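Subject: Sanity check before I submit

Could someone independently write out the structure tokens for this chain? I want to compare against mine line by line before I put it in a report. The sequence has 67 residues.
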Amino acid sequence: MTPEQLRDAAAKSNSVLRDLAPDIQWVQSYVAGDKIYCVYTIPQRGADREHARKSGFPANRIRRWPR
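---
Independent answer below. Compare away.
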């Protein structure tokens, strides 16, 4: 992804988070090759997948910590 595409993806993500669940907190994102890994603090189950769906991002794997 280009820097502009990454910026636009972050803006879309933040917009969806404001509307979906303001108590979700973005912690950090990592870009590795052609993948983006995002770390969030999400108190309610299911909000992670809903965020991905509404943002238009694939959420191929979601891991919860602590397990």
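---
OP: Matches mine. For the report I'm noting this point. The mean pLDDT is 86.
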